Model the fold of this input.
Amino acid sequence: MARRVSLPAADDLFRPTAEGDEEPTPAPAVASVKAVPRTAPKDASGSDAKRQPSGRVRHDEKVTVYVTADELVDIEHARLSLRRDHGLAVDRGRLVREALAIVLADLELHGDDSELVRRLLG
Done:
């Protein structure tokens, strides 16, 4: 003969725990986390000397980027290489944000001579 386990009903799980409580006290709401922009040191021209990526914070904005299958494989290869060779476990989003920060800092610093401008001019 199999023994049956007695499980509590939903009413038992969500009932007030103290005598006289009419309604259970709701848990406090978690405040939303806003990304605080990092301040980078300024160079002689007054622009940011080093652009900082946002890192691991909750992001409120989204952009969709379409890539080819080969580009996606390259991103995954870079992600796995960072994990294997450097012990850095990063997701694709963080990898892309870091790369974007590097490219934008180069553009600010070098302007027309930046790698981005050279590649886009072809």
